Amino acid sequence: FFLAGMMAPRVLFAFICLSFVIGIYGEGHHYAVGEDIPVWVDRVGPFNNPQEFYMYHNLPFCRPAEPKGKLEGLGESIAGYELRRSAISISFAVPTRSGLVCEKTLTFEDASIFAYVVDNQYWYQMFIDNLPVWGLVGEIVEANDQKMLYVYSHIHFDISKNGDQVIAASLTSEGAVLIQEGAEISFTYSVAWTNTEVKYSNRFATYLDSNFYENQIHWFSLFNSFMLLVFLLGLVGMILLRTIRKEYVPLGEEDPDDDMTDEAGWKLLHRDVFRPPGRLVLFSSIMGVGIQLIAATFLVLTLGTLGAHYYESRGAIISAFVAWYILCSFVGGYFSGSVYAKNKGLKWIKNAFITTLLLPVVLLLIVIVSNLSTKTYGALSYIPVGTLVVMALMWVIFCVPLSLVGTFFGRHLGKSTAQNQTVSINPVPRLIPERPWYHKSWALLMWSGMAPFSTIFVELFFVYTSVFHYKFYYMYGFMEMIFLLLLLVTMAVNVIVTYFVLNNEDHQWHWTSFKIGSSVSIYTFGYAMYYYMYRTSMTGSLQFMHFTCWNLSLSIIIGFMCTAAGYLASNVFVNRIYRGLKVD
Fold first, then answer.
1. Residue 359's Cα: distance from chain center in Å?
2. Checking DSSP bridges between strand 146-162 and strand 84-85, what pairing results, if any?
3. What contacts 539, CB < 8 A, 6 or more positions away?
4. What does the alpha-carbon distance between residue 266 and residue 243 come to, in Å, rounded to a whole number?
5. Is residue 64 within 8 Å of residue 86, measured between CB atoms?
6. Which of 115, 155, 196, 502 sits a CA distance of 20 to 30 A from 545?
7. Quick one: three-class SS letters along 166-183?
8. Going residue by residue through the chain (584 aa), what tens digit of pLDDT does each one get?
9. For residues 411 and 345, what is the distance between their CA atoms, to the nearest angstrom?
10. Are 161 and 170 in contact (CB under 8 A)?
11. What is the Cα–Cα distance from 565 to 286, expressed in whole angstroms?
């Protein structure tokens, strides 16, 4: 850490990027013939509830004498991976006809556990050379109106190799044995090896469902979102042409080319529109967090577009996002400090701390609720306390200093902008007329987020299917285009709404972007609940709690980003139409 701190910023940045790329594009392990290949067991849980899972060794399967664990990365730990060495032994390029794992006589407790998990269609996950394989614990056979429960006693592995590297692995469960107290079961396995010409770099191609993801609906949704953006940009262009033309007509005079006067609209706010927003510290912090999230998300998706195969490493995309979010603390602090100083804020250190604290505190509260519900059920799908401590240390060591430095530089930019402001502000705020119902806060929350949400709901379906239906998402380039369209549409909607707010003689336009961002969050969360009820077979309070917490976090993050993007556009728009306004 000392050496890294002494490096020049560019060298340190290049080192971080190089380390990340090496982590993604590692060449993999090269095995000698007969070398042991560890088989790692991970989780077991009901098939319909992907976020409800338990330790594999909680089931009465065979256990190794010393169940060694595997060191997890940050992303793996957050995603709930906890790998343990299994009792199965596989040797590279050495077929195994029938290997004995152990022999077991089922006790009443063992039989009860197996009967419960088979009846609830539990599945388990293993890893062979970091390749995931899945299998069902048992099967249900119904005959003569009776339900017979069987547990699989034999596992067959089909493994492909190219030279001295493992390329593919699959698992087949066999040997169904009736579950009953006193049943004697011999758990066995077999391994078959085949050669393949597939390169190591392409070995995950078999996991990717191109027929599902590369569907025409993807392109259709992209085209629709683009046309929506064109329409909204047309409206913005018309508004700008109208306001820019009118800025050359002094206040109190009529435009000779227009039979309608605009005196009762936005021009009357020229001495109030630059008044600082209420709750300035919170407002600027929200904007800083939003920009920080936009920068981190853009970098993660850009790397994915350029070839960073996140799906090849457990929790890689989570690790990448956390790393980039930390590094972008400078960006968040810079933008937050700029907004704060521009509005003549004085407590910049307080602003910096709230900026860096805001999102972690909100997410921590959600994680605590999720962890408590998980612990109540004894499940494994929680974020360990040790991981939270590590993230807290990363926050103290990296986020806080970067945010303070960013705020320090940002406030100088904001101060210079405030000093160049030539428009004086009235000492007494102008009274705001009664707003029409469609300008009230509840109405904005209802309708303003519809257009931005319409750009992402199709992509949300594909993301949810990946997370909750055991698929590997790999369309990072497409997601990046949708992400940019979301931001652009949000910016256009903010400009339009801000124009109508100002025309209604309402100078409190700053928080409009927050209302629109919150509206997008509400629509996102509402769609998530719709997906849960009508597009999945999830059951149980634990799965519902995890699903709700996960989507609440996602909705909040989307809301932050849309709020910041909207404010950027609205701020530029307001400055453009008022800075050159001629007033008598």
1. 13
2. unpaired
3. 46, 48, 49
4. 9
5. yes
6. 115
7. EEEEEEEEEEEEECCCCC
8. 333 343 334 434 444 443 444 344 446 789 999 999 999 998 999 999 998 999 998 899 998 877 778 777 888 989 888 899 999 989 999 999 989 999 999 999 999 999 999 999 999 999 999 999 999 999 999 877 788 999 999 999 999 999 999 999 999 999 999 999 999 999 999 999 999 999 998 999 999 988 888 888 888 888 988 999 999 888 888 887 776 665 545 545 555 555 444 444 777 777 778 888 888 999 999 999 999 999 999 999 999 999 888 988 888 999 999 999 999 999 999 999 999 988 887 888 899 999 999 999 999 999 999 999 998 888 888 899 999 999 999 999 999 999 999 998 888 776 666 555 556 777 777 777 777 777 777 777 788 889 999 999 999 999 999 999 888 999 999 999 999 999 999 999 999 888 888 888 888 888 888 989 999 999 999 999 999 999 999 999 999 999 999 999 999 999 999 999 999 999 998 888 877 666 55
9. 9
10. no
11. 11
Q: Which amino acid is at 373?
A: S
Residue with tokens 């063992």: 110
Contact between 148 and 177 under an 8 Å Cβ cutoff? The reply is no
Q: Tell me the residue type at 234.
A: G
From residue 165, alpha-carbon distances to 91, 125, 189, 504 in Å are: 12, 21, 22, 69
**The one-letter amino acid at 552:** L
Name the strand (E) or helix (H) holding 292: helix 280-305
Query: What's at 396, amino acid-wise?
Result: V
Greatest extent of the chain over all pairs of C-alpha atoms, in Å: 98
Euclidean distance between CA atoms 24 and 12, whole angstroms: 19
Between the CA of residue 75 and those of 12, 81, 369, what are the distances in Å?
Answer: 22, 9, 20
- The torsion angle over the Cα atoms of residues 191, 196, 202 and 207, rounded to 10 degrees, is -40
Q: Which amino acid is at 554?
A: L
Q: Can you tell me the distance from the alpha carbon of 297 to that of 317, in angstroms, rounded to the nearest whole number? A: 10
pTM of the model: 0.89
Contact 557, 550 (CB under 8 A): no
C-alpha span between 561 and 289 (Å, rounded): 8
Within 13 Å and on the Cβ side, how many CA atoms surround 67?
14
